[in-house]
Amino acid sequence: MSFSSKPKKRISLAVMISGTGRTLKNLLGRIEAGTLAADIRLVIASTPQAKGLQYAEQANIPIQIVEQKDHDSRDTFSQAIFHHCDEADVDYVVLAGYIKLLAIPESYKNRVLNIHPSLIPAFAGKGYFGDYVHQAVLLYGAKVTGCTVHFVDNEYDHGPVILQKVVEVSETDTVSSLNDRVFEIERVAYPEAIQLLAEGKIRIEGRVVHVER
């Protein structure tokens, strides 16, 4: 099966957050600067305590809170989320520090994106999120790490890879210093991947993503 993004002047997004919202803040900044041809129509949070909601409020973006505890299964939880995405009529859903596993409906296949703070398939999968990833990289003694932007399927960190960027690991690195350097390239990689979709430069065959440069 193949999939191609269709070229558009701007694409519409729903952004999903669980915490500080630093990725949401970065995307909003890129849009404001004119380097990302997108509009964020909706922000969905997994908890009303998500600090990143302040950025949605400041930008007057509609907010939905969908908590897993209010649903009896992953399927009904996911259906509630994608119902809001349907109502907002978004082109793509962007996970931005969102750590819940979703059931992706067929209508959203290759329309949900995530960024992971390592070079998938290394240091990826259930339990590998946030500082746990960087700690594992350091304990393993890896010489390089980085970030991966990928489409989301129904497994953790498993969907087709759109792009990756590399960071060298220093012998003096700590979890904190490595996290900071990886996030700096995440700030570049995520908008770059979304812009490629906006420009219609993404084509997928099976698991392989072809990027027109």
Describe it.
The structure is a single chain. This protein has 213 residues and is α/β, with parallel strands linked by helices. Helix content is 31%, strand content 25%. The protein is built from 5 helices and 10 strands. It has helices at 22-33, 53-58, 74-88, 131-140, 175-198; strands at residues 2-4, 11-17, 38-45, 63-65, 92-95, 112-116, 144-151, 161-168, 202-205, 208-211. A 7-stranded mixed sheet has the order 4-3-2-5-6-7-8, with helices on both faces. It has a 3-stranded antiparallel sheet with strand order 1-9-10, with no helix packed on it. Strand 3, helix 2 and strand 4 form a beta-alpha-beta unit. Helix 4 crosses helix 5 (175-198). The longest helix has 24 residues, at 175-198.
Q: Any key phrases for this structure?
A:
alpha/beta, single chain, 7-stranded mixed β-sheet, 213 residues
Produce the secondary structure layout:
Layout: E1 2-4, E2 11-17, H1 22-33, E3 38-45, H2 53-58, E4 63-65, H3 74-88, E5 92-95, E6 112-116, H4 131-140, E7 144-151, E8 161-168, H5 175-198, E9 202-205, E10 208-211
Parallel strand pairs: 2-3, 2-5, 3-4, 5-6
Antiparallel strand pairs: 1-9, 6-7, 7-8, 9-10
Helix pairs in contact: 1-5, 4-5
The H/E string reads EEHEHEHEEHEEHEE
User: Helical element count?
Assistant: 5
- Biggest sheet, open or closed, and with what strands and sense? 7 strands, mixed
Kindly state the percentage of residues in helix: 25-40%
- Quote the distance from N terminus to C terminus: 22 Å
Global structural class: alpha/beta
The count of strands amounts to: 10
Percent range for β-strand residues: 25-35%
Rg, rounded, reads 17 Å
Biggest sheet, spatial arrangement of strands: 4-3-2-5-6-7-8
Indicate the low-confidence ranges by residue numbers: none
Mean pLDDT: 95
Name the overall outline. globular
